[in-house]
Design a protein that fits this description.
CATH superfamily of the largest domain: NAD(P)-binding Rossmann-like Domain
Shape: globular
Number of strands: 14
CATH topology of the largest domain: Rossmann fold
Order of helices and strands: EHEEHEHHEHEEHEEEHEEHEEHH
Structural class: alpha/beta
Length: 322
């Protein structure tokens, strides 16, 4: 039996596949390679290149091995871009998830781990986000993630779907030098690409209502995140009760300026970032409590900010961004 990992050739998904292997669990990967990399999928792991919107590709994924459950990571994840491309975002994140859930139900697969997002909360001010914090997403991306959670709840009510959703924001670092974040929108790749090209990294807005004026976020290491997806899958397999959603948070967060200062230190470049305009759809502050996930999933952050940057920088040095 195997877990179907959607988006398993991507930065996060590939780490989840390796974490499954480390736990002695098999994986099947489906990925359309729009942002993933074929070489991220280990040899011996069944791989179907295709979209969740393609019923032929989706059926091939479910036919590749007996499937225990689904870890759903695939999607269009850029909050700022989603403001300009709302229909694309809804198609990729909602329509595709409906198709995935329908086929899982038709195949008798009733276990589902959803890679959600802390963006479902929107701009929550200075408070610490808990799972019960009101949901008020500020971008189509956040809206689609919240709808994804509603779809799971509807599936549970309708036919006993067993699921949980993991909410998190900035995923950084690398668990292996051959797995790197190639996103053109994420903070670490933006910093590294600027440094590679001799440009000064940019802070997008320094007039937010935060202590230093820059966005404050949880930054979590991708290897810790991957392990939590696997822990959730294992709990579902064993029939242990899980909450419908968990925050994977640091409890305190870090500002973009703090990240820039750490990056200048760790990379040895000593750069001073310049300030650009805000990106649409970016909340000022999202910092989540990870207490519930620590209790039920063994969630913990095992990397410092400097270590997160160091592992990401090592991978980026081996794979210069195009």
């Amino acid at each position: 039996m195997a877990w179907l990992v959607t988006g398993g050739a991507g930065y996060i998904g590939a780490h989840v596949v390796r974490s499954l292997s480390k736990a002695g669990m098999d994986a099947v990967v489906i990925d359309d390679l729009s942002s993933g990399h074929r070489e991220f999928v280990p040899e011996g792991v069944p791989f179907i290149e295709g979209s969740l919107l393609d019923p032929t590709a989706l059926a091939a994924a479910f036919n590749a091995a007996p499937i225990d459950g689904v870890i759903h990571i695939a999607g269009f994840k850029y909050a700022g871009v989603s403001v300009q491309r709302p229909y694309h975002t809804y198609t990729q994140n909602v329509t595709a998830m409906v198709d995935l859930l329908r086929m899982a139900h038709d195949r008798g697969v009733d276990k589902f781990v959803f890679s959600s997002s802390a963006s479902v909360y929107g701009n929550v001010g200075d408070g610490l986000v808990t799972e019960d914090t009101p949901k008020a997403p500020t971008s189509p991306y956040g809206e689609t993630k919240l709808i994804g959670e509603w779809l799971l709840a509807d599936g549970a009510r309708a036919h006993g779907l067993h699921y949980t959703a993991l909410r998190y924001f900035n995923v950084v670092g690398s668990g292996s030098d051959d797995l790197y974040d190639s996103s053109p929108h994420n903070l670490f790749p933006l910093i590294f690409k600027a440094l590679e090209e001799g440009r000064t990294p940019v802070i997008f807005g320094d007039d937010y209502p935060t202590p230093d004026g820059t966005n404050v976020r949880d930054y979590i290491h991708v290897a810790d995140l991957a392990d939590s997806h696997v822990a959730a899958a294992q709990k579902l397999l064993s029939g242990e009760p899980l909450a419908t959603a968990y925050n994977l948070g640091s409890g305190d967060g870090a500002s973009v300026r703090q990240i820039m200062d750490a990056a200048a230190r760790v990379t040895g470049t000593g750069f001073v970032p310049r300030v650009g305009p805000r990106r649409p759809g970016d909340p000022a502050r999202i910092v989540a409590s990870g207490e519930l996930a620590a209790r039920d999933l063994g969630w913990k952050m095992t990397y410092t900010i400097d270590e997160m940057i160091a592992t990401a920088w090592a991978a980026a040095q081996k794979h210069p961004l195009a």
